[in-house]
Write a structure and sequence with these properties.
alpha+beta; 9 helices; single chain; two-stranded antiparallel ribbon
């Protein structure tokens, strides 16, 4: 991709820069003459999200750049705002919404479809004057555009490492969690060493377990009730449907028997069974809700008493909870080492 010319228009002011073949040197004998602004306008004309300079707002300007790109030939890009850019390629005009369709445009002007390469090519050809570079392998190029040497190398070599990158992210997440668990396990060990015993509140632990079981039972019964109600509705609807059809069944001796709700064999029994089952499930649900309400009220009373007497500090309560967690620091440390080894490989 070669930039042949750049036209900038702001209000009534307009200027065109034509570049010659080979190397073009942008210089001035004094500072603050617009060198950085010109370079940023060149990047802005290619669709990049570029921060303004002190005196010029890019989104208030019309910018057009003429490029020579392999293999499509001459490309004219016109940008009138931050939101879109127009491209004329072989006489055909296409509008690209920014930044969503920026990759589609850059695939054409940089003649490459690799996303890793397109994401990092700017960092390989441009260094911002104001920011500078503290590292040559990663960092911010300009604005919010970042550079990563590993991604660029993968893009240039055509390597697809998406599965490995996803696995690396999962391993880092797991490793972070295990390290936090290890810190908790070491803290638990120090609590047990100082107390000399397992300082847990057996009543609260047992109560929480029972409440959890009751909540699970409550949800299961509610789902069962919903299923029974659906079956009852469907069966009753079927009976009405058959009755309204005014069907007649031919019996022995050419006797014609009309089909009614009362002579459909088996369906009424099924409905009665569902009704009886619904009563049983409803009764169980009422019992579970009563038990749950009773236990939750007892816990609330216990909490109010603790708050009233201030018998325990937050640290003491936390220590009791931590001591009750069955966590093994040695096993966690082994898992951390295994994950670190896998991550390195």
């Amino acid at each position: 991709m070669i930039i042949q010319s750049l036209r900038i228009k702001e209000g009534l002011s307009e200027r065109t820069f034509c570049f010659s073949e080979g190397v073009n040197l942008v210089f001035s004998h004094e500072n603050s003459r617009g060198k950085t602004t010109l370079l940023r306008f060149m990047l802005y004309s290619l669709g990049y999200s570029i921060p303004n300079t002190r005196k010029i707002k890019f989104d208030r300007c019309e910018v057009a750049v003429c490029l020579l790109c392999d293999p499509v030939g001459e490309v004219l890009l016109s940008r009138f705002s931050n939101d879109f850019i127009e491209a004329v390629i072989n006489g055909e005009k296409t509008t690209y919404v920014l930044p969503d369709q920026l990759h589609n445009l850059h695939k054409i002007i940089f003649a490459d479809t690799n996303r890793d390469m397109l994401n990092n090519i700017l960092g390989a050809i441009y260094a911002d004057q104001e920011k500078g570079w503290t590292l040559l392998n990663r960092g911010t190029v300009i604005g919010s555009i970042r550079f990563n040497i590993e991604e660029l190398i993968r893009g240039l070599s055509g390597c697809d490492c998406s599965d490995l990158i996803q696995k690396e992210g999962q391993l880092n997440t797991e490793l972070s969690k295990y390290r936090q668990m290890f810190s908790v396990a070491k803290y638990r060990e120090s609590v047990l060493e100082k107390s000399g015993t397992l300082i847990t509140d057996d009543y609260l632990v047992e109560s929480d377990a029972v409440i959890s079981q009751l909540i699970m039972r409550q949800k299961s019964l509610q789902r069962e009730l919903k299923r029974i109600d659906k079956s009852l509705t469907e069966n009753k609807g079927f009976i009405r449907f058959v009755s309204e059809m005014k069907l007649v069944v031919q019996g022995p001796g050419d006797i014609m028997i009309p089909v009614t709700e009362n002579n459909i064999v088996g369906l009424a029994d099924t409905i009665e069974f569902l009704i009886a089952k619904r009563k049983m499930v409803s009764s169980d649900l009422v019992s579970v809700i009563r038990q749950l309400t009773h236990l939750q009220k007892e816990e609330e009373n216990e909490a109010q008493q603790l708050e009233f007497f201030h018998s325990e500090s937050m640290i003491e309560i936390f220590d009791k909870k931590i001591a009750a967690v069955p966590i093994n620091a040695i096993a966690i440390e082994k898992e951390i080492k295994r994950l670190e080894k896998t991550l390195r490989s």
